[in-house]
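To: structure subgroup
Subject: Chain for Friday's discussion

All,

I'm putting the inputs and outputs inline so they're searchable in the archive.
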Amino acid sequence: MEIHIEKTGKPCKLCKREDGGLTIHYPHFLYKVGDFVAPDWSAHVKYYCPHCVFLWTDIFDALTLSEYGERYVEANFDRHRRPAEARMKAAPLLLKEVIKLSGGARFLDYGVGYNVPYIYELRGRGIDLWGCDISTKVPYSRFIRQLPTESLPEGTFDGLYSLDVAEHLADVVNDYLTMGRLLKAGGYILHSTYMLHKMWEPSKGLPDHPMLRNPWHISLCSEKAMHVIAEKAGLQFIKSLRVNTDTGFAYLLKKPGTKKISCSLVDRFKATKLISLLNAHLQYVESCYK
């Protein structure tokens, strides 16, 4: 079966406009890359808004965050597990960007997944780094919290970042409101995710990119969509930027307000230098597994 597109009157989940939208029917799909075979992607429907350039599905909207986490684990958490060393190399690079931007001292990996070891490695070297996730597979602790059952200290983080998490957010605006509450005034958000406007537009054929077809990618944003989300969540959308991750891009947002710098320029230099050294160590570790 082929992808089928039709016009829809369904209001956009973000901007609420009803005109010009599209309904996209995705058939069952088996995704293979080399030796990797993903769990079967079931037939589902996504919706596209041309006004804020946003693609979403509502197939999980009736689930609570905990229920979605359980379903995700059942379907693909173990199958999608990346080698820890490869993922650990990407996350510290995002952290480095947030450290340079914020000049802060406390940071949060929002959706840490299996990538827990680097949290403790950096904490052991003096960086106040936390993590959170929703999966029951993650080894939680005082500094790795399970959402939504465990809370995080609000208004205390200078920055938060994520790797391949933003496309899984169903209640998008409320999720960004939550992120805003966790940040100090002037704090930064950096999400490495897929950029819809770089992957597809209706005038250029069918939306058949595998990452658009993935039913677990329930919110795919463009820069226009991020402006809408930021406005509704009381944040500022700064820009998109290139990052050294699997998606290649990230969205940068900021919580309004000014804050007292939490650490000196010397401390910031030490932190970024530390992450560079950690990356070199991880490259060595990865080479041992080849």
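Points worth raising on Friday:
Residues 265-288 form the longest helix (24 residues).
The two ends are 39 Å apart (CA to CA).

D.
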